[in-house]
Amino acid sequence: MDEPEQGVFLNHNDSGRFECRYVTVCVYDSPSIMLKGMAGSVFGMWSAHGEGRDVGCLQTLIRGDCVKLRFKKAQLIVQLPLSYERSL
At 31, is the pLDDT very low, low, confident or very high (cuts 50, 70, 90)? Predict the structure, then answer.
């Protein structure tokens, strides 16, 4: 029997590192029981991952109206150095 073709692939972050940060997300209209009545809400949540850069499937999901929780772009107030060593 043939192996099924992989339909989703998440590549490593651009930084190449595990990332953990507090992000702001927006909720879009959804039939999901977990998001029922939350359309238009904006709230903060933790996002922690080592992979997550989309490789070709995000636009298909957006066109299919499947993305119901999206990052809200925030204005960067202070840019911190990537690491302590680089700040010296």
Answer: confident
Q: DSSP labels for the chain? A: -PPPPP---EEEPTTSS-EEEEEEEEEPP---TTTTT-TT-EEEEEEEESEEEESS-HHHHHHTT---EEEPP-----PPPSSTGGG-
Residue 83 is encoded by which pair of tokens? 């690491």
Residue 21: closest CA among 61, 86, 76:
76
Model confidence at 7, in pLDDT bands (50, 70, 90)?
Answer: low
83 Cβ contact list (under 8 Å, min separation 6): none
Look up residue 39 and give its two tokens. Answer: 């359309």
Work out the number of other CB atoms within 10 angstroms of the CB of residue 26: 16
User: Which residues make beta-bridge pairs with 24?
Assistant: 44
Q: What residues pair up with 10 in beta bridges, in sequence order?
A: 54
